[in-house]
Structure prediction request, 130 residues.
Amino acid sequence: MQRKWERARRLRNAATDAERHLWRHLRCRQIVGCKFRRQYPLAGYIVDFVCMPARLVLELDGGQHLDAMARDADRTRAIEALGYRVLRFWNDDVLLRTDAVLEEVWRWVELRVGESSTPPRPSPAGRGGG
Prediction:
């Protein structure tokens, strides 16, 4: 198990552009106040992102996943067997359609943790307003 944690640490330090971009929006409990972890060992795999309270896993797929769809399906089944929901997004969607990806993540987290929050809006005071 120690090897998984070491590998997870290496993956965090070598994150893809899409992973870094999405992490900026997930960190610090920005989605329904829930904590996300990145590159986390789960079900014998290292998942890209996981929100434990919502039992939600986010996986980001690049072009290499076109050749690994059967392996990805096995991975998803193993994770879902533990009671997690797996959402997969293409890297391009994370980078080019970030708002749509975040809306879907928000919906799932909200559904799973049973809160009826709305996405936070920036405070006018934060932009020099009153």
